[in-house]
Amino acid sequence: MxxxxxxRLDFLRSAGLAGAVRAPLPGDASTRRYERLTTVSGASLMLxxxxxxxxxQICDPSWTPEERHAHGWNAVARLSAGRIEAFAAxxxxxxxxxxxxxxxxxxxxxxxxAVIEDFGDAxxxxxxxxxxxxxxxxRAAVEALTVLHAAPTPDILTGAAGxxxxxxxxxxxxxxxxxxxxxxxxxLIPSLAFNDDAVAEWRAVWAPITAAGExxxxxxxxxxxxxxxxxxxxxKTGAASVGLIDFQDAVKAHPSWDLHSLLQDARRDxxxxxxxxxxxHYFALRPETDREAFMASYKGxxxxxxxxxxxxxxxxxxxxxxxxxxxxxxxxxxxxxxxLKAPGLEAVAGWMDRHVPEDVRR
Length: 362
What we know:
five-stranded antiparallel sheet; alpha+beta
């Protein structure tokens, strides 16, 4: 028996769940793992398992950009490194707003273990593929965001495992994400080569977008808000009918961030008509929003996110031998190509035209 398994068994025993039947769930692109627990009474719960040593150090709020780069990717991007404290604190905030985040049943933050409420398997992506109407689901997802965006955004969140800072998705983090594109695309596509001048220009053309993203950071962003992280909860309506998971990397960000994650999804097609309908619903619920200014940042940050995701997918394929992510890349290229036609993105589009051949961008 591994040391990690011994920790899991001790934790379950201390939580009164020694007799639970354990069923591992399929993994994703992270270092986190889940098991479904069926208790002796027949109830279903989830074991969240994130070994604290599995990722690099989290960001100290006082660190400079240089210090963040020296401490590794989680510090640059202001990721939580899967810390249980982050999940519990974000969950508590979401629940305080009447949104549906899992209840924390038991927690051992130092060892990266928690037992949480099981929201089931009715992921939006899954139930839509099985025939559920997508428009009501996406409207509810937008309604959940408007609740979040209307609420005050605290600097410190408090949950069952203690306090957690809500850091800003700032220029360093945004540019760090965009830089994954120039770092990893050449390792997947050897015909691409970005010299130091090209990389410097890459950062320069994104600077206005990242500056606007930081300046507009005013709400909590889930940060991975899409149809495979949203669960339909039967018996609830409106915003509360959306079960929220995988939100431990939440940051203070521009309110467009979660919207473009939802509506320009990397893993499933969202029609232009549905994107417009969902955005119209958002602006109807947030009438004080300057739509033109909002959409300028929406397009710019969506393009940056798509470049970031293309870099992540390239890394998953080239470094981690996960070829399945190649199937998602054409969708991301299509979103990126479309967004680069928007006003304000001419410099980024020009960089792409000079450095990335059209036959790659599809």
